Predict the structure.
Amino acid sequence: MARTAPLPDDPTDRDAAIRALCAAVFASPGMLVQALTHPIDGPWVIAPHTHEHQLQFDLLEHCAGRVMAEDQWSSISGTTALVSRPGTAHGYELAPSADHGGPGRVYHVRLKAQPGLAAPLKGVFPAVAGELSGTAALVAAMRVVIRLGAVPGVRPPMLLARLAEAFCLWPGPGRTVGEAAPYAEPEQHERGMSAALDLIDKRLHNPPSIDELASVAHFSVRHFARRFHAAMGCTPHTYITARRFALARQVLSQDRLKINQVAEQLGFGSVATFSRWFSQQAGVSPSKFREDPAVM
């Protein structure tokens, strides 16, 4: 069973710590180092490792197996929230939950830990909170964070707002997941942008053109380009490149596919073309990337 921490004596201390974390992220958007998601459709193993000076949040949806957090292994099932503080070992041995009937998913956010910020959070966010229920709002917030945080260094205000929401919804010691206020029905332009982002996710192997994206969003090409940059902080091309790179990292993190198969899955005509592209994005070749156990 997953471990939980005792409830803090004064809940206002927890609220103050979360407000401080949210304020730090808004003041320094570059604190967000990485936002990724991984489907868990079979055995998925990441060896224990540490990140110095970084704070990591993982939401494991419909996953079973065991996880290491705060240097200890815990058995998990269902939906689990993990928080790894700087310098503490964490690792994963996961598979989809048998009772779910489909793949699981990992949502992963990593922050630079500012001096004096990480230590107080030990009593605010338990290292492991397992068998969670009522996580729909938290999952929705994390999905938006992953989507908006795809491009390194690009941190639009909506990303920071949804990240702060995820912190507020994150399960506390001895507490259930927080509840979010219901959102109003999205405006037409928001639905259009969501449709365009969905098309990108479905077509990473054959990226849609800006004309196709504008069409599915029901905008002119010029209006869509302006809307996209305002919402995402980058051009469609930059966003698509970042999403393809994230998928490449995800597939390469496991050994089920050879590199030529990874290249084919992402729509590259040859291994050489894929290797050049990946090396430009990562600074290392696909084979060198596979040798690094601390991909997450």
